Amino acid sequence: MSHPSLRSICITGAVAVVLILTSNGLVTADGIRALAPKNAPRSAPRGIADKSGNQGMTREAIIVRKGDEPMGVSLGMPQQVRERPWVEWSISSTALTYAVRTPGRYASRWGAIGIRSNSAVILDFDHFGDLKQTTDGRSMEMELGVAEGATNPNQVNFCSAGKFNEQDIHLTKAQAGAFQCDLWCRVNVTRAVGAGDYERKATITVALVNGYDWTELTDETSK
Amino acid sequence: MKKILLFTAVDRTKTHHIRRSPEGGSTMKKVLLFTMVGLFVMAVSGLAQTPVPPVGIYEVEVFDCDSVTGLYLGGPGHLGQGDWLARCFASNEAKGNCNKKNWLIPVTVHASVAQWIDFSMSGTRWDWFVRKPGYYAANCITAKVASNGNVAIDYSGFDSLRSLTYPTGPNTPIGIDYSFGGSITEAVANGWVPAPLLNNDDDLLVENDYWYTNPVGGGTGGNRLHESLTWKLFNRIHVVRCNTACEYQNVALITLVEAGQKPWIEPELGGYKQPLIDWVGVPIP
């Protein structure tokens, strides 16, 4: 270390490392480098450290310290931990196929919907309606209902498919922590229904109610 | 799979063309690349339009409900019963998790409705007792047909009445004609069809010919074939002086064909083909 040129190289290298850390990212207590979000608003608190650098659903947490510039997180400083809203959902089936031989009114349990989230969630039903014949547009009446733990159709409050679009389910944060329900379907095959194939495509939207209003939490945000 | 094979075939052709090109490889490489990208885009767009075949198919219980109130009629649900009137299959499980704000989950309900027929004939046998020669007509049989699709009516084996007593003799057969209508006057107006010609005069009841709107008494209309069509069938025999006193008879066959029947119906007995699950997601014209 006594050589002058070697000393100048060491000093230059140290300065460069400091510049890199202060301009692009931070070093957390466990030594993992984390970057500040690219689209974070200037007015929003900065100084963000990602614990794992992984956008995994349950592991991700963002540590926020109020301040205008990115700063390192050090033990003993006031910290605020916010967890991104996440949702884990499942539908045991998204397609239902009836094979009907004779007229009647037939009900079936379509499938189970499961929701687990750390945020309020809305289940939004869109584009439901009567089934339409694929060839000439004739229709068949369809009714839908959602019930928890129903064992037969009489325990389900059915409504016409058109009205079902207005039956969105709003789950509070507490309810969305562990929510389970069954989707039921009932078709009315009258004598007026001609032989043929009838179909309806609809959409169920699982929407996170974003209480934090994070700008980066958009529809395009994906895994 | 066909699109992939097509892509490979065209690729080979273009490669062959490059080797013969006097312009050098650079331009042709660009052409080849452009062609490949184009074909890839075409293939991807084609695949996007192809319906996703159902996966993870399983049968679910079907509950029979009252046609008016919709209330379940009781008893266990029906699952996997080959003789039940409707069966239902669920498929395409979906799940996801992350921070995405909105998950749009497409769902589909599909119903394949088979053709049914409901028919009756007040009789299938006419018995004449004739004392003297002459033309005699009778309103003998009322026939009803209801169906939710086209129905073909095939006549076969109709002929003059031939002697049972002297089947090989020179006896003159008794001519017989058929017609239909609400009364004998209508039957005459519709015209008599001699029995042998009836075999070539098959009928087709076309569902679309029977739709009606604004029915008397209100309602939204309907289809008379779905509800029921009724005919009175007349026949007329011509007994001449040379007909020997004996017994005459003709046995014929009327076949009703459900012309729009689904391929998943077993044609002889009208039940489900087994295994029915193989038909889930199969495009049916």
What are the defining features of this structure?
heterodimer; A: 223 residues; mainly beta; 3 helices; B: 285 residues; alpha+beta; five-stranded antiparallel sheet; three-stranded antiparallel sheet; 21% helix; elongated; disordered N terminus
Short account of what is shown:
The complex is a heterodimer of chains A (223) and B (285). By secondary structure, chain A is mainly beta. Chain A has helices at 4-24, 161-164, 173-176, and strands at 25-27, 33-35, 48-50, 62-64, 80-82, 87-91, 95-100, 104-117, 121-126, 131-133, 139-147, 159-160, 169-171, 179-189, 196-208.
Helix count of chain A, per DSSP? 3
Q: Classify the beta-strand content of chain A into a percent band.
A: 35-45%
Radius of gyration of chain B: 32 Å
Major protein interface = A-B, 70 and 68 residues
- Strand element count of chain A: 15
- Helix/strand/pairing category of chain A: mainly beta
Mean pLDDT of chain A: 73
Give, in order, the helices and strands of chain A.
HEEEEEEEEEEEEHEHEE
Low-confidence spans of chain A:
15-73
